Amino acid sequence: MRYLIRGGRVLCPDGSLEELDLRIDGDRIVEMGAHLPLTDSQVIDARDRIVLPGLVDPHVHLREPGQTAKETIETGTKAAAAGGFAHVCCMPNTSPVIDTKEIVEAIIEKADSYGYAKVHPIAAITHGLRGETLTDFAALIAAGAVGFTDDGKGVQRADVMRQALLCAKELAVPIVVHAEDETLSRDGHLHDGEVAKELSIKGIPSEAEAVMIARDIVLSEATGGAVHFCHVSPKSAVRVIRDAIRAGIPVTAEVTPHHLLLTQEEALRVGAWGKVNPPLRAATDRAACVEGLIDGTLSMIATDHAPHTAEEKARPIEASPFGFVGLEISFPLMYTAFVHSGIMALGKLVDSMARIPAERFKLHAGILNVGGYADLTLIDPHAFRRVDPETFYSKGRATPFAGRELTGWPTLTIHRGKIVFTRAAKEESIR
Ligand SMILES: NC(=O)N[C@@H](CC(=O)O)C(=O)O
Ligand SMILES: [Zn+2]
C-alpha cells in the first residue's frame, strides 16, 4: 500500500514545522517534499493537522501475561495507537513476572501479530521481583529486552542494585529504577501531606522516593552503570538528579503528565481514581517537576499507564490499587498544558515523548525521515474535546483527568505503514 499524506505541517528533526507531503510505501517513508505528485498513492488529507513521529512511551503496564481483566497486549497497544504511540516499553510486574527469555519473546511476538504498536519489554532485575537474585540479563537482552527494572517496587538491597548496575554496564543497557524505600513507604496510600492527614490515611513521604534515588546515583557513579529513574515526583529528587547529571553521572529520568499537572488535593475530588505510586504530591513538588522538564533534568515523559478493573478503582482509597491509565490522553494533556499555552515549543515536547526515550532505549524511532519506518501520528491542534473514559480502547477507565477539555488529540495513527487508528467523527469537538 502506498499513501500520500498531503497538506499537513510536518515536525522535522530540527524542530521546525514545514508544509510537506510524505509518501509511504510498505512500512517506510520513501519521500518527503512540498507538493508531491499523487502517482498511484492513496491520499490522506492532513490539512489542519500536524504530522508527528510515532510517540515513544518508556513506561506502560500491559498486564499480560496473567492480569488480562485489567488489560491485554491487544487492548493496551490499541490504546497506544489511539494516543499516537508507535513504541511502548512494558513493565515486568505481570503474572508470571517477565524474568525469562520465553516470556519476553512471547510478548514481542504477540504485539507484532496485532501490529498496533511495537512493544519493548523491560525485564525484571531480580527473579520474581523478589529483590534477591539477578535474572539472566544477557539472555533477556538477546530475546528483546531493552532494560531491567523491578518496577512496582524498589530493589531494597543496595548490594543487589550494585550487582545489577555492574551487569548493566557490561551489557550497555540501563537499569530502570522505581525508587521506593519500603521502610519509609510501607502501608502508605497518598502523599504524606495535608490531604492524607485530613483523611486520616497513612502517607508516603517524599523521602521514600528521594533516598533511593540518591542511593542509586551513588551506585551509578561507583559502577559506571546507567540508571533511568521512573516517574520522578518529589522536589528533593529533581534536585539530586539535576546535580548528578551536572556531575556527568550516567542518569536519565522520566516524569508523568499527572506529576506535572496534579497535586495531592485530587484525592479529595476523585478518591481512588487519583491514587498512584508515587503519589500526587504537594504544589512545590509539582512545580519542581515542571522546572525539571523545562531545564531537561527530566528529559522524558512517561504515562505510567497502569490499568486496573473498574471494580478495583471503585473501592475506597485504602483498598484500591495504585495506578490509572494514561496512554490515550498523555499527548493532548501535555500539548494543551505546555504547547498550546506557549510554555514549551512543540519540538521540545515531542523530543521528550519520542526522540529522547527512543535514544535511551536504542529503539531506532522518534524522528520522521526518508528511509525510516512509517510510524507517525496526525494531531489536530485546533479542536477541543473532553476526556471521556468511555471512549478508551484500554480496559482501564480510571483517570483523574476525566472531563478535562484538551486540544492536540491524535486523529490518525500509522504504524509500519498501516493505519492503526482513526478518531471517530462522532467524537465531535466542543469548541
Ligand atoms: N504506578 C502505579 O501506581 N502502579 C503501577 C506500578 C508502578 O509503576 O510502580 C502498577 O503496576 O499498577
Ligand atoms: Zn513504578
From TrEMBL:
Boundaries of each Dihydroorotase catalytic domain copy? 49-235
UniProt EC number: 3.5.2.3
Q: Which residues bind substrate?
A: H61, L62, R63, N93, N277, H308, F322, G323
GO CC annotation, single: cytoplasm
For this entry, the protein name equals Dihydroorotase
GO process terms (BP): 'de novo' UMP biosynthetic process; purine nucleobase catabolic process
Give the organism's phylogenetic lineage: Bacteria, Bacillati, Bacillota, Bacilli, Bacillales
Question: Which cofactor names does the annotation list?
Answer: Zn(2+)
- Write down the species: Ferroacidibacillus organovorans
Reaction equations catalysed: (S)-dihydroorotate + H2O = N-carbamoyl-L-aspartate + H(+)
